[in-house]
Amino acid sequence: MKFSFSKKIIHSILFTLCVAVPYLNNYELTFLVWSATMAVSLRRTYSKQLLIQVGLFTLILGIALFSSFFQDFGSYDFIRDITYLAKPIIGLLVGYQLCRNSLKDPLQTVIYTGVLLAIFHLFIVFYGIVFVGFRNIHQIRGFAGFFSDFEIYVIILLLFSDKFGVALSRNKKSIFLTLLVLSSAFYLSRTNFLQFGILFLAMKGYFVPNRRNATILFSLVLAGLVAYSAILYYNPKRNGKGIEAFLYKVKIAPTEPFKTKINTEDYKDFNDNYRSVENINTYRQMRNDGAFSVLFGKGLGSKVDLKKEVWLDDASLRYISILHNGFMTVYLKSGIFGLILLSLSIFLLFRKQITNNQELTNLNYLITGTALFLFISYWVFMGFYFKADTKAILVGLLIALSERISSQKSTQKILE
Known about the structure:
Elements: H1 7-20, H2 27-40, H3 48-68, H4 75-101, H5 106-132, H6 137-144, H7 149-159, H8 161-164, H9 170-187, H10 190-203, H11 211-234, H12 243-252, H13 267-272, H14 274-289, H15 291-296, E1 304-312, E2 315-320, H16 326-350, H17 358-381, H18 391-415
Antiparallel strand pairs: 1-2
Helix pairs in contact: 1-2, 1-4, 1-5, 2-4, 3-4, 3-16, 4-18, 5-7, 5-9, 7-9, 7-10, 10-17, 16-17, 17-18
């Protein structure tokens, strides 16, 4: 018997593979799979919006390459940084190309991919609890993963499936939501909670500027401040178990990435505010290196001296080339000009054309929510540049899908 696979099936498999492989935490494998997928799905034409996004990230890489000519770094660090800074470019192209080329139902492909990830994650959690014997959230997260932005997007797509024209039975939708909510709960990620809130509000249209929405958002911010005050009053302890561990992380969230003075001899202060440690050392190092580094960065292969050994990525490191903060990472490599380009890439996602097509309006809402969330994502987890991040693929897909819908509506008007 002869088996054959259509291009649509192959591209659906490639999409799932590209989204799933970063969860293995092997960036070399991720880069290989993404690059191969990009190569086999290349198009002859691309939209202006996609080319602008790709162009901005290419310029960031180009500035870092230019700065490298004035530095002397090892070849391994140089090549590694090229692959890191190229990740958003490849991700955007992969998502765009697969959607524009042959994915028949892109959002259904996204949903089924998210459900598979949730099942896989729940299996790992189950294995860790039953067979390894993990009993606290720190152990479970360290074993099964710390967050999954992609699964939150799928939850949003399921909750608003009618608005996106996704056809799913009520039972299937309920089962998928149960799996995804359970999986996301075990990540117990502060960022994912914020992500869900931002995307949910975006899909409700609350970020459209008017008096009603401003009142609603102000009320929600006030409620958030009251809830945070309650957490401060409860005063969850460091190294607590279960929900207390999560509440402690919430308690220190406002200062963790923004603190400007840290006692590096106090391990509690150092560990709780480690993201700020990276930012402080990067800022000081760049300032001391002079105006050229501030404007154009220190280039590919550059590193930040943490002043002491820190356990990161299963190794004890003092010099690091990639920070938790995506803005500071770009600042290190490409300077202020790189930061301007990165900020512009986010800002342009906000600028969506007004349309009477409801499905396209809802896609624009989701892209707007994504743009807002990216500011947070870049600040705490490197955004598109994080090794395990898949949002670039999803954004590329959403851009392509909005163009498909626009072209289909234009064709229908011509035929009418």
